Amino acid sequence: MTPPTPLIAGNWKMNGTGPALVEARAIADAADVAGVRLALCPPATLVERMSREAAGSRLEIGGQDCHADASGAFTGDVSAEMLREAGARLVILGHSERRAGYGETDALITAKALAALRAGLEPIICVGETRAEREEGRALAVVTRQIRGSLPAELAGKPFTVAYEPVWAIGTGLTPTLEDIAEVHHAIRATLKDMFGEAGAAPAILYGGSVKPGNAAEILALPEVGGALVGGASLKAADFLAIVAGAPKA
Ligand code: 13P
Q1: In a domain, 24, yes or no
Q2: Which is deepest, 46, 56, 94, 201, by most CB within 10 Å?
Q3: How many independent structural domains does the chain possess?
Q4: Is the CB of 165 under 6 A from ligand 1?
Q5: What is the torsion angle, in degrees rounded to the nearest 10, for the CA atoms of residue 106, residue 146, residue 91 and residue 249?
Q6: Which atom from ligand 1 is nearest to the alpha carbon of 126?
Q7: Burial grade of 31 (CB within 10 A; 0-12, 13-18, 19 or more)
Q8: Residue 125 resides in a domain
């Protein structure tokens, strides 16, 4: 099976209003880079406008979360179908900020992944250990348990992506050693193959957590690192495009 096309995805989190669309426009204008996919996941309020900015370019737009149901009495929530209608093609699910801040469980993330499939969105499913779990030597056990618990069997053969984001590396400027990143990515690939057979070789496995222009190239060159999920450094086109420039191309 051919290796997955690398994906560099930006997660804007709860940042960005209309004026920030100039950054997305600059990224869209520079997105015609062969052998690598580019995506931005803005707040829900910007998905539709950013999709319009990206129209005709190779920049893909995604949501940051979705509800498991298509519609209903869920005040404040957005469904996968709504994101799709607004122009999204991807959706981040199970980000640690949602697992920790909103009590999202593996079972809920599984339901949301099924919703993404139902709506025709490619899920980017996030996993990652806390600092305490790493210090206790439990990182691999936690991550593989999250993979097994959060990915429905229905994903087999469908486009999906996994993101390894150690909780303690997010927004801190800290990153695991290259050896530790490679070890976790290897374990994730082995788990995906165990769950999905040969189809488990297809999904890209992204690294996320304090990826910057200065450290991206060495992380992205690691075996089984199929791209990056970038937070803070995705808010500025120059930083995001510098990360893309350092990415190996398929
Ligand atoms: P930072 O790149 O800001 O550390 O955020 C990573 C992240 O959480 C992406 O989803």
Answers
A1: no
A2: 94
A3: 1
A4: yes
A5: -170
A6: 10
A7: buried
A8: yes
Based on DSSP, count helices (H) and strands (E) in the chain, helices before strands: 10, 8
Q: Is 165 a catalytic residue?
A: yes
Q: How far apart are CA 70 and CA 111, in angstroms?
A: 11
Q: Which domain holds residue 101?
A: 84-193
The CATH number of whichever domain residue 174 belongs to comes to: 3.20.20.70
Residue 133 lies in a domain: yes
Residue 185: active-site member: no
Is residue 210 in contact with ligand 1, taking CB distance under 6 Å? Answer: yes
CB 106 within 8 A of CB 146: yes
Per annotation, catalytic residue among 97, 165, 185, 224 = 165
Render each residue's pLDDT in the chain as its tens digit; 250 residues. 677 899 999 999 999 999 999 999 999 999 999 999 999 999 999 999 999 999 999 999 999 999 999 999 999 999 999 999 999 999 999 999 999 999 999 999 999 999 999 999 999 999 999 999 999 999 999 999 999 999 999 999 999 999 999 999 999 999 999 999 999 999 999 999 999 999 999 999 999 999 999 999 999 999 999 999 999 999 999 999 999 999 998 8
**Residue 69 near residue 79 (C-beta atoms within 8 A):** yes
The minimum-distance atom of ligand 1 relative to the CA of 210 is 4
- 8, 233 in Cβ contact below 8 A? no
pTM over 0.85: yes
123 part of a folded domain: yes
Which residue's C-alpha comes closest to atom 1 of ligand 1? 231
